[in-house]
Amino acid sequence: MAHHRRAELLSDRAALRTRMAAWRESHQIVALVPTMGALHEGHLSLVRLVAARADRLLVSIFVNPAQFTPSEDFSAYPRTLEADREKLGTAVDAIYCPPVADIYPADFVTSISLEGPATTGLEDRFRPTHFKGVATVVAKLFLQTTPHLAVFGEKDFQQLCVIRQMVRDLELPVNVVAAPTIREVDGLAMSSRNVYLSEAERAVAPLIYHTLTQCAERLRQGDEASRVLAEGVAILEKSGFSVDYLEWRQADTLLPATTIEQPTRVLVAARIGATRLIDNIAV
Ligand code: AMP
């Protein structure tokens, strides 16, 4: 059998600390790619994006209980560490996959919560404790891994804004890099949750991207926003989606957009069957 070369597995914070100390000692520039595993091309593109900017690449894989609301899929979330290791191959130097107790010891009581982008009525309206969980775990991962760079996908655009805000507010010494969204050939944004889709749901799922594209095009042409968005919702609902939101927002603040003079995005969250999908594009 062929012997696969693979990245070093750092299974707990002690192993991480030893590795980080060695890298720091030899003045290596470290890039962190935080993930929840079940890796796909989107995750791999994040790794590739910073490969040239860092001496050492570290992927963290941690399914963060704090960012799931109780009704969500925390226990069902796909955990595929062996396949993830295979996919990463030697594209990264190490994979940090701590047990929950290494992030949240039994007596853990601190959390980081933001206003601003975390409270603009998008994801926060449907997942009220989500960004508190995200900000807290990302801050902790930053402190444990002390990276020079950290990469986040535009796929989770509100999350990216929240991380940027937190890094600014706390002056965390991390350079946040944004990565473009990687899509399937039919336009569906890659997501670990796409495996939940039935064949029929998978067949209609690209309508999310097509609707975003259409809305962005009409907004660029100057069509009235409320009408554009209402028609977008109607198209999605006619095909069986339940739309949580479809909104036009300023790209930097996530406040409602009124003009295309500044960068703006259209953001959507829609449920099909039991699966909730999110996506967004630049206008
Ligand atoms: P997750 O494992 O879903 O928490 O995602 C880990 C990182 O990968 C986050 O920064 C996501 O925004 C990013 N990501 C997820 N899907 C994609 C995609 N299709 N294209 C680009 N980045 C993505």
UniProtKB/TrEMBL annotation:
<comment type="similarity">
    <text>Belongs to the pantothenate synthetase family.</text>
</comment>
<feature type="binding site">
    <location>
        <position position="159"/>
    </location>
    <ligand>
        <name>(R)-pantoate</name>
    </ligand>
</feature>
<keyword id="KW-0067">ATP-binding</keyword>
<keyword id="KW-0963">Cytoplasm</keyword>
<dbReference type="GO" id="GO:0004592">
    <property type="term" value="F:pantoate-beta-alanine ligase activity"/>
</dbReference>
<keyword id="KW-0566">Pantothenate biosynthesis</keyword>
<feature type="binding site">
    <location>
        <position position="67"/>
    </location>
    <ligand>
        <name>beta-alanine</name>
    </ligand>
</feature>
<feature type="binding site">
    <location>
        <begin position="190"/>
        <end position="193"/>
    </location>
    <ligand>
        <name>ATP</name>
    </ligand>
</feature>
<comment type="subunit">
    <text>Homodimer.</text>
</comment>
<dbReference type="InterPro" id="IPR042176">
    <property type="entry name" value="Pantoate_ligase_C"/>
</dbReference>
<feature type="active site" description="Proton donor">
    <location>
        <position position="43"/>
    </location>
</feature>
<dbReference type="GO" id="GO:0015940">
    <property type="term" value="P:pantothenate biosynthetic process"/>
</dbReference>
<feature type="binding site">
    <location>
        <position position="182"/>
    </location>
    <ligand>
        <name>ATP</name>
    </ligand>
</feature>
<keyword id="KW-0547">Nucleotide-binding</keyword>
<feature type="binding site">
    <location>
        <begin position="36"/>
        <end position="43"/>
    </location>
    <ligand>
        <name>ATP</name>
    </ligand>
</feature>
<dbReference type="InterPro" id="IPR004821">
    <property type="entry name" value="Cyt_trans-like"/>
</dbReference>
<dbReference type="GO" id="GO:0005829">
    <property type="term" value="C:cytosol"/>
</dbReference>
<comment type="function">
    <text>Catalyzes the condensation of pantoate with beta-alanine in an ATP-dependent reaction via a pantoyl-adenylate intermediate.</text>
</comment>
<dbReference type="InterPro" id="IPR003721">
    <property type="entry name" value="Pantoate_ligase"/>
</dbReference>
<dbReference type="Pfam" id="PF02569">
    <property type="entry name" value="Pantoate_ligase"/>
</dbReference>
<feature type="binding site">
    <location>
        <begin position="153"/>
        <end position="156"/>
    </location>
    <ligand>
        <name>ATP</name>
    </ligand>
</feature>
<keyword id="KW-0436">Ligase</keyword>
<feature type="binding site">
    <location>
        <position position="67"/>
    </location>
    <ligand>
        <name>(R)-pantoate</name>
    </ligand>
</feature>
<comment type="pathway">
    <text>Cofactor biosynthesis; (R)-pantothenate biosynthesis; (R)-pantothenate from (R)-pantoate and beta-alanine: step 1/1.</text>
</comment>
<dbReference type="GO" id="GO:0005524">
    <property type="term" value="F:ATP binding"/>
</dbReference>
<dbReference type="InterPro" id="IPR014729">
    <property type="entry name" value="Rossmann-like_a/b/a_fold"/>
</dbReference>
<protein>
    <recommendedName>
        <fullName>Pantothenate synthetase</fullName>
        <ecNumber>6.3.2.1</ecNumber>
    </recommendedName>
</protein>
